[in-house]
Write a structure and sequence with these properties.
Elements (H helix, E strand, L loop, with lengths): L9 E6 L3 E5 L5 E5 L8 E3 L12 E5 L2 E4 L2 E4 L18 H17 L31 H16 L7 H10 L2 H10 L6 H12 L14 H10 L16
Parallel strand pairs: 3-4
Antiparallel strand pairs: 1-2, 1-5, 2-3, 5-6, 6-7
Helix pairs in contact: 1-5, 1-6, 2-4, 2-5, 2-6, 5-6
Length: 242
């Protein structure tokens, strides 16, 4: 939460049923959440903040956020980071099978990505064509790309994505979507998505809480993990081939 310790003011960028997004003086956002899930952008609150809108003043001062009539004391210590990923040999066909199995489970429960048709294509996919694709704070194309970046970064076997790609993302999509992609490229994300990535990579146990990450964002992220090896230009990877 370094962006909250700058002493500068912030503004409410958006409100949801699960929390409030703050735009700070830096390029990073903060999510004030009343859910239990941890993440690199998330500050978990014990109680829901009621009666807020985007016009509400937000003041940052000496470890305290004053947001309308609410006062939040920032906890001491470093921001949450996920545990190191499990390290085991995995093959692309195994990863695709695990991701597709979860996508089929999600489909049976009525959770389908608007970009699900990409699974039926056989041609390489261009990441730039997916930037900003779809409505909302995190368009589906960006969630897909975040999933691909995260699953690759958690494997630790390939280079970081080109700076040019992340620069293009910053220009072409929302601030929140860019934040999530930039963090995913470093192996950082909401703990539900980290667990999902480790399952796809290594087969470790995974519950289905990732489906509750956003309205459809969780299944979009999973789709990106299924399509990861077809996305060209995210950095070549060496390792076992299918």
């Amino acid at each position: 939460m370094a962006s909250l310790s700058t002493g500068k003011n912030a503004r409410i960028m958006g409100t949801t049923s699960r929390g409030v997004f703050l735009q700070t003086g830096s390029t990073w956002l903060v999510f004030l959440s009343w859910e239990p899930w941890r993440g690199p952008l998330t500050l978990n609150l014990e109680e829901r903040l009621e009666g807020l809108d985007v016009q509400e003043p937000v003041l940052l001062n000496r470890g305290v956020i004053r947001l309308g009539e609410h006062q939040i004391v920032l906890p001491p210590g470093a921001a949450w980071e996920p545990s190191p990923p499990p390290r085991a040999l995995s093959f692309p066909d195994e990863r695709r099978e695990r991701a597709r199995a979860l996508l089929e489970e999600a489909r049976r429960s009525g959770r389908v990505s608007t970009l699900a048709h990409l699974l039926d294509l056989t041609v390489p996919l261009q990441p730039h064509s997916l930037l900003g694709l779809g409505p909302g704070l995190t368009p589906s194309g960006d969630d897909l790309l975040a999933g691909a970046l995260l699953v690759r970064a958690r494997r630790g076997t390939g280079p970081a994505p080109p700076e040019e790609f992340l620069a293009a993302a910053r220009r072409r999509t929302t601030t929140l979507a860019w934040n999530l992609m930039a963090l995913a490229a470093r192996g950082l994300a909401d703990e539900r998505l980290v667990s999902l990535a480790d399952h796809v990579n290594e087969g470790v146990p995974c519950d289905r809480t990732f489906l509750d990450w956003g309205a459809h964002s969780g299944v979009d992220v999973l789709l990106g993990m299924a399509l990861e090896d077809r996305l060209v230009g995210l950095g070549d990877e060496s390792g076992p081939a299918s």
